[in-house]
Amino acid sequence: MRLANLLRWILAVRLIPWIHGLPLPVTSEVFQPLFPIMPPHCTKTTIIKSTLSHASGDDITRTIQMNFRIGLQNTVCFRLENATLEKDSLFIDVINARMQDQGWLHTLTLSRLEHHHPISQHYDFAIPEVSTNCICECDVSSDICSARTYSFTYCSRGNVTQESCFRTFHPNQADTGCTSGSQSKLCCEVSFSSYQNKSYTAVKLEQPTTFIIFKYVAYDYTAGRWIEKDKSTVRVEVDGRTQWLFLDRWRRLELGVSAAGRASHQLESGMYFAPSNFGGEMDELRQQAINEINENNFEKLGWFRKDSTGHFTVRNGMVKIQRIHLAKVENCKDQKSQSYLDAHHYIDRNDPEKAERFTLESPVEQVYPWIQNAKIIDGTGRHVVVTHSEGTDVEVALQLHENTYSLSFVHDFSKLDDFSGTVIVDFKSNRFFNLTVYNATGIIHGIVKKTTDRNSIDEFYFTTYIGEMRSTNKTLIVPLPALIDGGDRMICLRADDSTNLPEICRIISFKEVALEINLLENTWKEIDGHCPECNKITVGGFLSNLNPINWANGISSISNFVMMITDVIIYIIALFVAYFILTRCLLPLCKCAFCFPPAPSCCSFRSPKCKTKNAKCPY
After folding, report:
1. Do 494 and 415 meet the contact criterion of CB atoms below 8 Å apart?
2. Coil, helix or strand at residue 224
3. How far is 223 from 221, CA to CA, in rounded Å?
4. Using alpha carbons only, what angle is made at residue 93 by residues 89 and 95, rounded to the nearest 5 degrees?
5. What is the reported pLDDT for 405?
6. For residues 430 and 65, what is the distance between their CA atoms, to the nearest angstrom?
7. Residues above pLDDT 70, as percent of the chain
8. What is the rounded CA–CA span in Å between residue 8 and residue 497?
9. 115: part of which helix (H) or strand (E)?
10. All residues at 6 or more sequence positions from 216 whose CB lies less than 8 Å from its CB, including other chains
11. What count of other Cβ atoms lies within 10 Å of the Cβ of residue 302?
């Protein structure tokens, strides 16, 4: 008798678990974490039971299948119960050892819903910091400022590291500060550098593939605490047909997953960008008007991008900058001018009061409440993973490949002590209930009333889920329809299992944020140039001003004509004064100086009337 009992104990405790891969009893608790383990909240789920029959020759195999739907962050819980009737078997202990997980709590959680977007375009760009310097020249023949030296060229000065510089030429400017009738020339240097040495990665997203992640854990409650006996995490693609896989390591629980339809939300295909993090994940994905890789639109982001050498520059900048940079003269002599860059999304170094001429949109997780996070997942920049915070239910089929077992589903009770919140319409017109629950867990049902009166019409119903096992305080986002318009209203909540308890009702305030309108407007900015070599008096310039033909150049108004007449009168008066000084002063002095020996006839300064006949003039 003792030998039989010993044999049964060896088979039950040592041999059978080793054959079937079961963990030995002494090892399951040793490597558990020091912190207490708590199973997730078991959500109440509607189950449809069916039995599948499969004929293989003369044998018929029957498989139990459970069909149910599970939502994001929800958990389905079940136990395996021994259905055998062989109570008097000699090997009942062996069977119990084989079925030692009979009391385990098996949990299946839909932990994440992901969209994997392939990337078809990728480049790096920066916000440019722009500095402009202009010089003005009145002399049309001067080479200091000319089309040869400034039209469609790079800056000739020593280039600063990480700075790109282009020259622009602006002829036929106003003659302010120059001689009348002349046309000044304006020559500028426009330099670009990355603002604060920050860079961004632009990507083009294509249509996504949908993946869901299940977390399976089997718990055993032993010695007053929970112990994890088995667990696995599986990722399943659900855009196609039903996917089948085994959950447990003994391959008894088989899971079939299919989507009831596409996810209710997804990011649109198009251009996005994120702050660069070379070689790692890039978060804070943003959606904004941005150039595709073959575009060069200066009203969109991404026109100052990294080239093949690793430097930031303007593509085809020698031609493009000449086209978008405008300049005009205020006073050529004083080297004062105005500059205008016909572009958006840059920093103007010449305007410290209003330097920023760009705006960046908020990350997509702040714009769309249904996004938990969005990341470029690796340094190669080939995929973007968008993790959802809400989504549609998934169809699940659970098969048990064990004749001696049956499935028994369980769920936890729901609880709610109190709540608060605000109905918000944000700057993108997303309408939602920002809900905070206190000491709550499980399934929470809500009713939105028409007014602040509790007896008013029920306008909208919703259900939300809290996955924590223990009661907690948590903030949730509940989407609302457009009919929930302005004004405070009453909202009532109740826990799923508290049908006999009164609802908790609170008057909830309504908050509407104005639409965000970012208008980027450029203005003309004054530029003080420095050019000691400009506007110097030369012989050629002086002779050209003496040419009467040049006087009539540039006359386009009455004021210009009056200025020309005034200049002519001044020139005539100046000629008469010069003639008088020359004939009455300079020539007599020269004649006296060169007369040897001096004679009264040479150095005579008598007036003409002394030369008349018989006139006496004193010597």
Report:
1. no
2. coil
3. 7
4. 75
5. 78
6. 41
7. 75
8. 46
9. strand 105-125
10. 106, 107, 108, 109, 230, 231, 232, 233, 234, 247, 248, 253
11. 24
Phi, psi of 528 (to 5 degrees): -100, 110
- Residue with the two structure tokens 């207490």: 36
Return the SS3 of 419. Answer: strand
Strand partners, 56: 59
Q: Which pLDDT belongs to residue 452?
A: 92
- pLDDT tens across 142-153, in order? 888 889 989 999
For residue 287, CA distances in Å to 51, 247, 273, 352, 365 come to 50, 38, 7, 28, 11
SS3 361: coil
The DSSP bridge pattern shows strands 418-425 and 504-512 to be parallel
Determine the Cα–Cα distance for residues 349 and 515; give it in Å rounded to an integer.
Answer: 30
pLDDT score recorded for residue 549: 56
Residues forming a β-bridge with 38: none
Tally Cβ neighbours within 10 Å of residue 505.
16
Measured on CA atoms in the order 206, 425, 476, 275, is the torsion positive or negative? positive
- CA distances to 272, 275, 576 from 280, rounded to whole Å, are 17, 11, 84
Which distant-in-sequence residues (6+ apart) come within 8 Å of 426 by Cβ?
432, 513
pLDDT tens per residue, range 124-164: 999 999 999 999 988 888 888 889 989 999 987 655 556 89
The secondary structure of 438-491 as a DSSP string is EEEBEEEEEEEESSSSTTS-EEEEEEEEE--SS-EEEEEEEE--TTS-SS-EEE
Residues ≥6 apart with Cβ < 8 Å to 88: none
**Contact 529/336 with Cβ under 8 angstroms?**
yes
- pLDDT under 50 in the chain at which residues? 1, 6, 9-28, 31, 85-95, 97-98, 542, 610-611, 613, 615, 617-619
Percent of the chain with pLDDT over 90: 39
Cβ atoms of residues 11 and 91 within 8 Å: yes
How far is the C-alpha of 136 from the C-alpha of 144, rounded, in Å? 9
Instruction: Count other Cβ atoms within 10 Å, centred on residue 198.
Output: 10
Domains and their CATH numbers in the chain: 2-112+211-264+389-410 (2.60.98.60), 418-512 (2.60.40.3980), 541-576 (no CATH)
392 to each of 5, 234, 265, 328, 368, how far by Cα in Å?
55, 19, 9, 60, 16
C-alpha torsion sign, points 543, 546, 548, 552:
positive
Dist CA 304 CA 128 (whole Å): 6
Strand (E) or helix (H) holding 589: helix 587-593
- Rounded to the nearest 5 percent, the helix, strand and coil shares of the chain are 15, 40, 40
CB 255 within 8 A of CB 215: no
Query: Phi-psi region for residue 386, left (φ > 0), alpha (ψ -120 to 50) or beta?
Result: beta
> Which tokens belong to 91?
């090997």
pLDDT tens-digit profile of 467-507? 777 788 999 989 999 888 888 999 999 998 777 888 999 99
How many CB atoms are located within 10 Å of the residue 560 CB? 15
First to last CA, the chain: 174
In the numeric block, which tokens belong to residue 578?
């010069």
Residue 162's nearest CA partner among 354, 318, 304 is 304
